[in-house]
Amino acid sequence: MRPILLLLLLVSAADAQDGPSLIRRMRLLLEKQGNKAATDQELRKELLRRRDEDQKFRQQVIEAQKKGPVPADLVKQLAETDRANREWLKGVVEKKGWPVRTLVGFDGEDAAWLMVQHADPDPAFQKQALKLLEAAVKENEARPIHVAYLTDRVQTGEGKKQIYGTQFTLKDGKLQAQPIEDEANVDKRRAELGMVPLAEYRKLMEQAYGK
User: Fold this and answer.
1) Integer angstrom CA distances of residue 79 from 4, 88, 110, 132, 172
2) What pTM was computed for the model?
3) Which pLDDT tens digit goes with each residue over 183-197?
4) CB within 10 Å: which end of the chain, N or C, has fewer?
């Protein structure tokens, strides 16, 4: 059984309950305006560049997994990309705190979350980022869904049950949710953060992973 690699930005975006199309369009417009109004555009651009590199290699790994063993050089490239992004982001956080919306825009904050989500070799940094994210959400400076994903990442990394059901593994060619705390009420917890029900999320995962 092994953890799966997915294009998290796509899956997490689909996991959010946007409501009617008019509300969704308004939200996207507000986010676009927020991106333009970000006070540190240089930092935002670097976050987006690193995000694109992260997703490029993950897409390549996903496609390779469908055909068989992933080439060692590709695995090495992905690991090095994650390491470089992790160390760079730690420096940003040390100097400026969490890259919040007003600083780097909605898409920049998304990119920062993505990097820390992939920082498994440094669980202490993930825990630090989780606390900063929780504080940012309270100030409407980050997406609540990011807290859900990172909470589950930290929990499963410590061998504990996840809370929101965002983490899956691949076992015998099939997607399987990692153990969930109080699974009977997971959809209630997901709804509180604006996430779709677990069954619907599973379908999104299957579509993204081709299973």
Assistant:
1) 14, 14, 20, 25, 24
2) 0.86
3) 999 999 999 998 999
4) N
